[in-house]
């Protein structure tokens, strides 16, 4: 574990901040930069802390058992997109999910987790959580397209740092801001990560449309007719080709703790897919009863309003 | 679940689970018909424990619902009343997990793009366009920042490293794109050929008409000349030979157009080979069919037919061979 330095000055300034500044020697330590107690930084490190800020984010990616093929491929795609992640084995579902997962995360030494939970082989829920005592979010995932689809033709370096673009409505509300921060920390590759590659050739798009977070991944492609230097006039000819998986997240709940804890936010518009299916079935359920009722109603109506006798009824009778 | 969805799928043929607006009348009718109210009330009782969702829902006059093909996403028109929103808690957590403010932008690499206008979720093209423009603007802004910091941004063309998609996969992508292009070109060609054939037919008809007219005219002229001669009593010598155009020196020239497949010395008029050609093809096809059925070990065993490779080939089958393919196991 790294050193914890207590300084009264910084205690007043940032009482609740976790430790972002590494200790004096900027060499790599095993300590995740998040820790349970509040760890203070050095006195004069405030102006200098950006220099010593090391993003030591590690994400653990797992899924539940009985996951669908499409969602498994989505998970594998995400694993290939995030070089700072660790893929773990499938987790037995249900019983004491929170505790087990927290233990697993601690065991692997990760600071965040992406957990894919598939219910009834149909619905995919994604949990985004910060390990020790950070907030966690549960999403319902829709509209999944994996990278293997042949219509997504782009390609980029594996492990290059992505540019994250957010639509401006992430600043509109507190829960969106929290989600944005979590997304930056989870989906952004740390700067000098061992497996990261130089150059930035892809860009993530997170945008809120209709209270859902839509994710897209584009490759930045520029026609290379000049030498390998940066293209000048080519900026206008820059095109984006879609690479990566596509999905749409519907936030359900935000919890204060990791995989549990008091609820901080609940989506008022969320209807669970089970309920939707139940509604559908219920709508179809009364079809026969309605038909019978309609028939009796018609008969009553005919009886109560008898038609006048038809003059021409006997015309063709033999 | 039978919700009408596929029509909206313009970009992806593979069932993209998009949301479409469902007619509200179904739910409206279901909620308000007097005879069914008792039915509904029993529903309500059952659903009471579910956060008043059903209660809210059945009261809805204009339930705006969006459905996907198999994973439907119905949104409540009024927010559920029991939703928790702990703003202070959220802000507190945000401060908890947030990085210090003076962290270099290079660590975050996040860009905020202004969205000018609201995008309709159900309009696929507009939505994707909005995402695309957002990404493009973000990239441009980032490029400027990188330029100002003097750091490399774009990947040089000779940098080879592992990519997220394997080369084999990219080959498949390329194959598919080429196949699409070829299909388009072929359909274009077919259309052009059809047009050309039509025009050629018209031209041919014109020519035939011309020839018939010419022939009739010549016959008429000969008749006239004969009548003339008769009338004038066959007494003229060669003086009043009609001007039939024999003397132009153009009579005995064969048409210079070559007919394909006919040798110049052919005296049958080019029709000698036709019958033979037709029976040859039939015999060859028959022979091939029999060979595949009985030749070199006989009928092939039951082998896998639907593999990844053959699904790509099936589409290129010649339609006229469809009947033959059923019997022949390859």
From TrEMBL, chain A:
Residue ranges, annotated region (Disordered): 1-51, 287-318
Keyword Nucleus on entry: yes
Entry protein name: Brix domain-containing protein
Top-level taxon: Eukaryota
UniProt-listed PROSITE patterns: BRIX
Upper taxonomic lineage: Eukaryota, Viridiplantae, Streptophyta, Embryophyta, Tracheophyta
Family: Belongs to the BRX1 family.
Family annotation (PANTHER family): RIBOSOME BIOGENESIS PROTEIN BRIX (PTHR13634), RIBOSOME BIOGENESIS PROTEIN BRX1 HOMOLOG (PTHR13634:SF0)
UniProt biased composition (Acidic residues): 308-318
From TrEMBL, chain B:
Principal subcellular localization: nucleus
Localization (cell): Nucleus, Nucleolus
Keyword Coiled coil in annotation: yes
Alphabetized UniProt keyword annotations: Coiled coil, Nucleus, Ribosome biogenesis
Compositional bias annotation for Basic and acidic residues: 1-26, 206-223, 235-251
InterPro entries: Ebp2
A Pfam family reported for this protein in Swiss-Prot or TrEMBL: Ebp2
Ranges annotated as biased composition (Acidic residues): 48-71
Biased composition (Polar residues): 305-323
UniProt-annotated stretches for the region Disordered: 1-27, 48-80, 206-330
Keyword Coiled coil: yes
PANTHER family the record matches: RRNA PROCESSING PROTEIN EBNA1-BINDING PROTEIN-RELATED, RRNA-PROCESSING PROTEIN EBP2-RELATED
Similarity field: Belongs to the EBP2 family.
Protein name: rRNA-processing protein EBP2 homolog
